Structures are given as C-alpha cells and as structure tokens.
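Annotators were shown the component list below and the corresponding predicted structure, then asked to write short factual statements about the assembly.
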Amino acid sequence: MSQSLNNSEAEQIFADIYKKHYHELCIYAIRFLKDEDEAEEIVQEIIFKLWEQREQLESVNSLRSYLYRSVHNRCLNYIKHQLHKNKYSDKAYLEMKKLELESTEDYQNKELEEKVHFAISELPDRCKEVFQMSRFEGKKNKEISEHLGISVKAVEANITRALSSLRESLDKYLKIELIVIMAVFLRHLM
Amino acid sequence: MAIIKNKQMEHLDLIGKYLTEESSPQENESLLAWITLNHENKQEFLEICNIWNAGKRINTSFDHTKAYNSFLRKTQETASVDDATTIALQPSKTRQLWSRIAIPVAAAMVISFGLFYIFRPTTKQNTFANTSNSVQTVKLPDGSVAYLHKSASLTVPSEFIGSTRPVSMNGEIYFEIAKNKVKPFIISIGTASVTVKGTTFNVAYDSVKGNCNVIVNSGTVVLAAQNNNSVTLTKTEKGYIDIKTNHVTETINDDINFLSWKTGVLVFKNADYKQVFKDVERHYGITINCPSDLDGKLALTATFDHENVNSTLKVIELMFNVKIDKQNSIFVVRK
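Structure shown to annotators:
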C-alpha cells in the first residue's frame, strides 16, 4: 500500500488489530508487568497512539511486528520508571528484565504453553498449589504462607522445586523434538 | 523429582525469588553474576523465565471486544473535541460548596464516627479531616496513600481485617492504592461505592448535592450505585454518579488540571480564556468575573508550577491582553 489510508480503511485496520492482536499483545506485555490492568493500559495506549498517527500509516504489512516492538519498548521504559520511582535503583533486576525481553522474540508458542500446562498438572500437590497461587493468583510469598499455614521458607522452596521440575519436563520435550527433527532429516537423506 | 545438589539449588532459589519479585537488590546482583558467568547459565535462566511466562497465559484472558469499544469511545471523544471551536466544560459545582459543606460534614463525620465506634468496638476507626488550606497526606495501614483536599475527610480502620479494605470519605481525595488483587479496596460514598484493586484516581464527593465524580489516573476503578448500576473506568476516563437517582455515567476526562489541587501545577495547552479562568478559579479557590465578549481566538499554552495567584494572573493579563483588578474578594477582568 503506497498511499495513505482513508478513514474507513483505517477503521477496518483498527478493528482487526483488536480482533487479531489485542489479546496476544496483552499476554506479551504481562510477561514483564505482572499486572493485567497495566498490560491492558499499555497496549491500549500504543494502539491509540497509532490511531493518532494513522495518516502516516502507509504499510500495514509490518504492523504486527511494529506493535510488538512498541509493547517491548514501552514495557522496558515502564520497568525503568518503576525502578526509578522506587528510589533504590536495582540495576541487576533491570538488566535481567532486558535479557528476558530480548530473548522472547517468538511471541506465540502454543505448544510450549500446552507442555508447561501439562507439566504443572503433574507437579506434587503442595508444590502445584504453591506454584499456582504464586503464578496465577499473583499472591506474595507471605500471603501464600499465611493461607497454607506454612513458613515463607517453605513457600520459596516449593517454588524452586516447581521451577526445577518444570524445567526437567521441558528438557525432555526439547530433546524429543530434536530427535524427531533428526529422524525426519535422516529420512530425507536416505 | 530428580535429586538436585545443594549447590545447584542456590541459583534456582534466586531465579524463583526474582520471578516472584521477592528478591533483594543484593540477591539480584548475585543472580546476574551467575547468569553472566557462562552461556549455559544464561540459557538456563532464560529457559526458566520462558516456562514461567508460558505458564501464565493459559489462565489469563483479555476482553478484546470491550477494549475495542473503549478505543472507539476514545477516538470519537477526541474527534468531537478537535472539531469544536470552543471547548465547553461542565462547571464544577463542588468548588463553591466547599465552605458551605465543611461544617455540616464535620458534624456528620463526628456523629457517624461516634455511632460506628459504639457498634464496632473491636476495630478502631480513625478519621482524618483536613481543616487546613494545604493538602494533607494520609498513609493507610496497607501502604496506600490518600491526599486530602481542603475540607475533605477520610475514615479508615486502624487495620484492614477481613477480605476487603473498607473506608468511607467525603469531599475530594486523590488515592494511590497499594496493589492487592485478593483484597479489594472499597470506598463508601453515601450509598454508592468505588472498588479498586490497586490504582491511582481522584474522587470528588459532594454529600450535599449527592453526586460524585471519579477520574482515573492509572489502573481500573469500578464505580457502583446502590442498585448495582456500575461502570468500569480505566485511565483518562471519568465516572459520574448521582446518588439519589442511582444514575451512573462514564465519559472521557478532558480536564487536564483535575489534579492541580494536589500537584500545585496548572497546565494549559492551547486553552481559550473561558477554560483558563475556570481552572484558575478552581485552583486558587477564587472568583473571577469576566466579560463574555473577550477575544475567543486567543489561546494560552503555559505551565504554572507552584506560582502564586498574582504572578499567574500577571501572565494571563499579558497573554489575553486584559487588565485584572481585585475588587473586594473578586477578581474583575477588563479589556
């Protein structure tokens, strides 16, 4: 598309953005923000900013990557701002968040999600309970310890245990995938 | 479960704390040192982050239809503001009422506080009433902060026991609510209520008129009437409730100076004289009499950061090419 968009074209594009990308963009943002409201706010702001500049919107081909890139940058700024606001500057935390942000270029990996979901269901009961409260309900360790009547140390230990166990399950999955690829590859050679 | 050596558990502990945001800066530093040690460590860290993040999305859903509707509303509101030659703003009724409601409110607060105290002897209630002319800052037991405009009052328990964080208030208060997803923060306004989980917003409640304005700065706020009529407000949205009729409405907030009473900063962007005088009146608590035939094409773009009323009016005189004199307690504008 070389000329600028007319209004109805623009409206269609923005309706599509919401239908196709909104949910995924929020999910992407929430990886780094922890909070659903903040994630939605940032995504809404980015789309609205795009709307304000819709006259310059010439190519819709790279729209998706533009949106993800914007969310990426905004999240990073947001985290920086939060750190600044909290007075103590935790440089190491910011550095690690950056690493995380940079490594997640594949926005969608449904298969990995399913594997992770299955692996969570396979965790020992207490371990699963603690992990779910922490990850899905966003509870702090202290709240979990009060709720379950166990020490904060025990909560921490259960989260560590869950992470190491989940990684082990994922390792197997990655290895299997590699074997399958190898097998396909070998068959092509023969 | 595999047998894991203690040495290996150490960094996993740190990653766990980092992901749950329970780690100290020192712990983050030692984790970062471990990550940068070699490529395998970095890979392991990123893998675990990936698992943690992938685990989240399954249980989270975002409503794109609702988001799109909110987007449409916002684009329409902006369009209508752009098209209009003059921006018509609702006159604020609360301002003139401050002095009139202060005494009955204080009395009502004392009585209700007394009754509350008698019937609820177990949880101590604290009432803060701002009788000064400056903004009073109140720290709440959950770490939230309330900024009380003059004549505002706030009643909070000494401790938030139970599954909610209930408070009651009167007048105008800006809230910064500490996040707690499982323990909503509920503000009673007469028979209506404002419910939030962690956000910043301004509430202006006029108990005499029986209406309330809520403007959201960040996060999500639910404004509900007694009959459960409610609106959900997000950033830059404004909710209005008429407590007598239980009528609740939501619009886009076009008042950029709604928080000037707290920040001490007045901002004008291409504002005409009507808007400028209206915001200056509210900000300084003064009355300005202004002829209606001033040049509506002149616009002011300026920031007044903690300026006193006289120096602000000096700038306005120059910008709008008028003279402003104080007659008794009223400021009069002449061409």
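Statements collected:
1. The helical segments of chain A are 7-33, 36-52, 63-85, 91-103, 110-121, 125-135, 141-148, 152-189.
2. Residues 152-189 of chain A form the longest helix (38 residues).
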